[in-house]
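User: Hey, quick favor. My workstation is busy. Could you predict this chain's structure for me?
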Amino acid sequence: MAAKRTRSDSATAAVAAMQAAAAGPIKAPKFVHLRTGDKPFWDSIVRARTRESWTDNDLVLAGNLARCLADVERLQKEIDTEGDILTNGRGTPVINPRHNLLETLSRRSVTLSRTLQVHAHATQGDSRDQGKKATKQRQAEKVIEEQDDDDLIPRAMH
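Assistant: No problem, here it is.
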């Protein structure tokens, strides 16, 4: 028999969420090498899931994904500086070879994101439900705007 999961709307889940938030992002294990530029990506990746859901193997893959995403950003900056077309040693225009590496790393990042379940569908749900969430958000914003126009609410005068 499987262990019963805590309901996400329970007081226990709320306490666990607050404790996890207070602890900050998960630190990389000693056996996962992260470069300085990988850290922001690491923090973003490990915040995408609950703290208790990460296994050691997941953290290794998260390290790979963080390095991969940092390399994608670095390569894109280099391509932006060098341009899409370069001239080879014979004077022939050629596509910047960094594009091939960028494509490979981009595919790797998508695969790792799916494996770790940190991609948009896993963290945000179906895209058809996003419209519903956005509509609710717009309705809430409208209510707040209407409250700001309410002359019955006293405001501080300076």
